[in-house]
Design a protein that fits this description.
Structural class: mainly alpha
Helix content: 40-55%
Number of domains: 2
CATH topology of the largest domain: Rossmann fold
CATH superfamily of the largest domain: HUPs
Bound molecules: iron/sulfur cluster
Radius of gyration: 22 Å
Shape: elongated
Length: 329
């Protein structure tokens, strides 16, 4: 096996069965990064607690998400796949890093302000410390690289600042300043064609649904709002179905739809059926693999428990170094 370039860390909250937004925004990159990097992928259940009202679905959501990741091509024999709370050292490092983090900076972060707007009745302490927990996730595993879309860039910059503060205060270089790896993350809109794809908005298309269900969801997609009748020419540039064709359909078909939509020689129903067919073809191997691994009830649990063991090995060594640098007995 070729030598890997360094260690990547990324985490995602346990949101259950994954949709196209999750696939295009994260999973596809996770799979590709494995070829070049040693990858550590965490299902960050502790982060989820900051916004959750009930934890009833947490075990199911965790398992379903892990299943989707594995079915989509994350290779647990190479990458470490684990649940954040199974390696409790992260909470220890979180506490330690919080001592070098100015509170004023945390409350000024745009993401914190957004959350306060979204859940004004639940502005909990964990919500403020979220970026510190994220810094603990990254630094505990000595990740050199963190894949980011534009939204997360300020958090990684924040992690870098915390690392510099920690290393400067304790005159050490124990913690690694992670580099950002900008990933191509297309803006994935939901079936409403307006808002980001999200389960809570019920505008999502699940990766692992049955083909008929996928077609049903696609048929509800909003198209060019100006195209009222089949005989009206459409504008693919403002149509979300066309954006999806560009990702999942062969180039010749994309060119054909682009031209025919403008001439009104293809209808939206036909166009959507074509998209559904191409999407189902793209996802078919993942769905087959999912069915296969879901047949063994122990498989996901075994992967996550092996991942936790491997993650713990790195975490225990980092915490020991951190404590030594601070002088904690
Ligand atoms: Fe969109 Fe296709 Fe309808 Fe054109 S034909 S508006 S690209 S769905």
């Amino acid at each position: 096996m070729a030598k890997k370039k360094g260690r990547v860390f990324s985490g995602a909250r346990p949101t259950g069965r994954q949709h196209l937004g999750n696939y295009l925004g994260a999973i596809k990159n996770y799979v590709a990064l494995q070829d070049e990097y040693e990858c550590v992928y965490s299902i960050v259940d502790l982060h989820a607690l900051t916004t959750m009202e009930t934890t009833l679905n947490l075990p199911d959501n965790t398992r379903e998400m892990a299943l989707d990741w594995l079915a989509a091509g994350i290779r647990p024999d190479e990458s470490i796949v684990f649940i954040q709370s199974h390696v409790p050292e992260v909470t220890e490092l979180h506490t330690i890093l919080s001592m070098v983090t100015p509170l004023g900076k945390l409350t000024e972060l745009p993401t914190f302000k957004d959350k306060v707007r979204q859940q004004p009745k639940n502005v909990n302490y964990g919500l403020v410390g979220y970026p510190v927990l994220m810094a603990a996730d990254i630094t505990l595993y000595k990740a050199e690289i963190v894949p980011v879309g534009i939204d997360q860039a300020p958090h990684i910059e924040f992690t870098r600042e915390i690392v510099r503060s920690f290393n400067a205060r304790y005159k050490t270089n124990v913690l690694i300043e992670p580099q950002m790896k900008r990933t191509k993350v297309p803006k994935v809109l939901g079936t409403d064609g307006k808002q980001k794809m999200s389960k809570s908005l019920n505008n999502h298309i699940e990766m692992m649904a049955a083909p008929e269900e996928t077609l049903e969801r696609i048929m509800t997609m909003v198209t060019d709002p100006q195209r009222k009748r089949r005989s009206d020419p459409g504008d693919p540039d403002v149509c979300n179905v066309f954006s999806m064709h560009k990702i999942f359909s062969p180039v010749e078909e994309v060119a054909m739809i682009n031209a025919e939509c403008r001439r009104a020689t293809i209808g939206c129903v036909d166009c959507k059926k074509r998209f559904a067919k191409n999407l189902n073809t793209h996802l078919a191997p993942f769905r087959e693999r999912r069915d296969e691994i879901a047949r063994d009830p122990e498989y996901v649990q075994d992967v996550l428990s092996d991942g936790a063991k491997r993650a713990h090995k790195i975490a225990a060594s980092t915490i020991a170094e951190v404590k030594e640098a601070i002088g904690l007995p």
